[in-house]
Write a structure and sequence with these properties.
31% helix, four-stranded antiparallel β-sheet, 488 residues, Alkaline Phosphatase, subunit A, alpha/beta
Length: 488
């Protein structure tokens, strides 16, 4: 029985039909038909509201491809999410559960041996030219650490979130940049990306490239040409902003006072800085598209745009951050343009960052390792009516004091219309997202006990799932189930 998460012959047929030029002849090498370029542009901490202010990306990628309205991250924090993107696993399986040692970070990723098997090593072994530009994993220091296995082009910085005064490790050579306008990191990454595209095209080698700028991560420094933009743009303030009544929230939020005026002003200005900093990412997308067009590669390239997590700004009285299970943090943009991908279509299925690595593998015709928890969403690009996962797991395990944005340990199960969150403190939240999309009313005391029992059981199963078992659990219906405790 075919499993939707495994590369199958039909996938190769789609690729053949989509990528083979109309004038192709039987004498041309078949391999070129099956190996499209794959380019991921991965922003840092980009929320959905801010993504609306990227006109070039929306015109060149979103309007020319498919957008996923329900794309989520399984752990809304930088290093756990990026480890998931590289390996296609839930954090409880790759065990990167924070940004710093010992819960997570680059040092733990390397110590666990994870660099020996990532999307880079899989595609490099299949003949791809692989390139990573920008951010790798938190804790990577370009002056101290060598390039990771599987990457032919390593153009990576670290140790700072500044767009100025940084060091890049370029295939082992250190390149230092200052604070001149031409040193602006996102622009430097764009220039390097264009060069890599041109070199790969000249050598007729398929390219897998990740371009990972810091923007709009704090401090969200804009390029000089974008300073002063959006001065009059008002930040969206949903009903959850500075939430008036948090009496049904966990204690950590109940104890949080209403936002002070200085906090509200700071959040608004930071929102504008984030919009400003995203404009250079928007420019980089345009430069990449133009380079693909100029080299004749645009028709055989999957161009993917996403972010490592969302970001909250004042919702539920929380200042700024990203490590909750609330919608603002777990949602991120995902749009895909590529060969055979219909233009301007939307998909509503529940897609995860767990799915990126296996999807890239499927695009390249590569079988991912058995440890992968995610599944390829390549079929969804061609058929928006396919059945998909019904639920997924959200995790948090880090206790790092610089990121205090709510209770530090939780597991949550998200379905198409609800979320159940169980904290390490024993506190629980349940939100009916159809009735309450802003998660204002915790209905844990109102939910059907039989449904609550089923959700709790499925949550427990997901927290220990691995590989195809995760996919099987995610696909199963959650039927209300009575138990002795639920009948009391």
């Amino acid at each position: 029985m075919l499993h939707p998460g495994r590369p199958i012959p039909l996938t190769l047929l789609w690729l053949l039909a989509a990528i083979a030029p109309a004038a192709a002849t039987a004498t041309e090498p078949a391999a070129s038909f099956f190996r499209p370029n794959i380019v991921l542009i991965l922003s840092d901490d980009e929320d959905l509201a801010s993504h609306a202010y990227m006109p070039k990306t929306r015109a060149l990628v979103e309007e020319q491809g498919v957008s996923f309205g329900n794309f989520f991250v399984s752990y809304s924090f930088c290093c756990p999410s990026r480890a998931t993107i590289l390996r296609g696993q839930y954090p409880h399986n790759h065990r990167i559960e924070g940004n710093e040692w010992p819960t997570g970070g680059f040092e733990k990723f390397r110590a666990l041996g994870h660099e020996s098997s990532t999307i880079a090593t899989w595609l490099h072994a299949a003949g791809y030219r692989t390139a990573l530009l920008g951010k790798y994993l938190n804790g990577y220091l370009p002056e101290r650490h060598e390039p990771a296995p599987g990457w032919d082009e390593w153009f990576v910085t670290g140790g700072t979130f500044s767009n100025y005064n940084y060091t890049i490790n370029h295939n082992g050579e250190l390149i230092r940049h200052g604070n001149a306008p031409e040193d602006y990191l996102t622009d430097v990454l764009g220039t390097e990306a264009v060069g890599i595209i041109e070199r790969a095209a000249a050598h007729e080698q398929p390219l897998f490239m990740i371009v990972a700028p810091y923007n709009p991560h704090s401090p969200a420094t804009p390029a000089p040409r974008h300073e002063g933009l959006f001065a009059d743009v008002a930040m969206p303030k949903p009903p959850s902003f500075d939430e008036p009544d948090v009496g049904d929230k966990p204690a950590a939020i109940r104890k949080t006072p209403r936002l002070a005026e200085w906090q509200k002003k700071a959040i608004e200005e930071h929102y504008r800085d984030r919009l400003r900093s995203l404009q250079s990412v928007d420019d980089t997308v345009e430069r990449i598209v133009k380079a693909l067009e100029a080299t004749g590669q645009i028709g055989r390239t999957y161009l993917v745009y996403s972010s490592d997590n969302g970001f909250h700004m004042g919702q539920h009285r929380l200042f700024v951050g990203k490590t909750t299970a609330y919608e603002e943090d777990i949602r991120a943009p995902l749009i895909v343009r590529g060969p055979g991908v219909p233009a301007g279509e939307k998909r509503d299925q529940l897609v995860l960052n767990n799915d990126l690595a296996p999807t890239f593998a499927a695009m390249a015709g590569v079988e991912p390792p058995g440890f992968v928890d995610g599944r390829s969403f390549l079929p969804l690009l061609h058929d928006g009516k396919l059945p998909w996962r019904r639920s997924f797991l959200i995790e948090r395990r880090e206790m790092e004091t610089h990121e205090i944005t709510g209770p530090a340990i939780f597991d949550a199960i998200r379905t198409a219309d609800s979320i159940l969150i169980r904290y390490g403190t024993g506190e629980t939240e349940y939100y009916d997202l159809n009735r309450d999309p802003f998660e204002l009313v915790n209905r844990i005391d109102q939910v059907d006990p039989a449904l609550l029992n089923s959700l709790t059981r499925r949550l427990a199963e997901l927290t220990s799932c691995a590989s195809y078992n995760c996919q099987e659990l995610e696909d199963q219906r959650i039927e209300p189930m009575w138990s002795p405790s639920a009948q009391k």
